[in-house]
Hints:
Strand order of the largest sheet: 2-1-3-4
Structural class: alpha/beta
Distance between the termini: 34 Å
Order of helices and strands: HHHEHEHEHE
Mean pLDDT: 94
Number of helices: 6
Oligomer: single chain
Strand content: 5-15%
CATH architecture of the largest domain: 3-Layer(aba) Sandwich
Largest sheet: 4 strands, parallel
Radius of gyration: 20 Å
CATH topology of the largest domain: Aspartate Aminotransferase, domain 2
Low-confidence stretches: none
Helix content: 40-55%
Amino acid sequence: MDTPHFPIYMDYSATNPCDPRVVDAMIPWLREHFGNPASRSHAWGWEAEAAVEKAREQIADLIGADPREIVWTSGATESNNLALKGAAHFYKTKGKHIITVKTEHKAVLDTCRELERQGFEVTYLDVQTDGLLNLDALKAAIRPDTILVSVMFVNNEIGVIQDIPAIGALCREKGIIFHVDAAQATG
């Protein structure tokens, strides 16, 4: 019988080893093709810009978006901050009420707490025993001053998949911005 090797890593939702195929694909860009994509005065920059734009198209294809909608950030935490704070502050003259779920990623919950300190009101909804958001509870929480709903697509800890199309339809019907943390959903 094989003896288990310790420690056993059980946080693959947070981060995991890079696929060797990805490492192999990136090595040339780290060693030889290191140009700045914003540098348009030399071939290294042109080559890097073309690679970034190709990657933008690939990501857009993966999620069914227009490449012009893809904004590069350092990761999901920065993306969530940018989306939540940007939408909240842009629409604050319409209202200051935000709805999210108690099981959201810490990055979303921390951002919501910061928005509360800035004068926004946040409703934190419970989930059902299966981890799903109750759509009736969401409907009941919506107010005339609700400007934003934030729901994680795939939960990073329990793996539950929320009904994003139904939640999105409700938000669209009510004219509310719908933010989805989909960091765990692709692939």
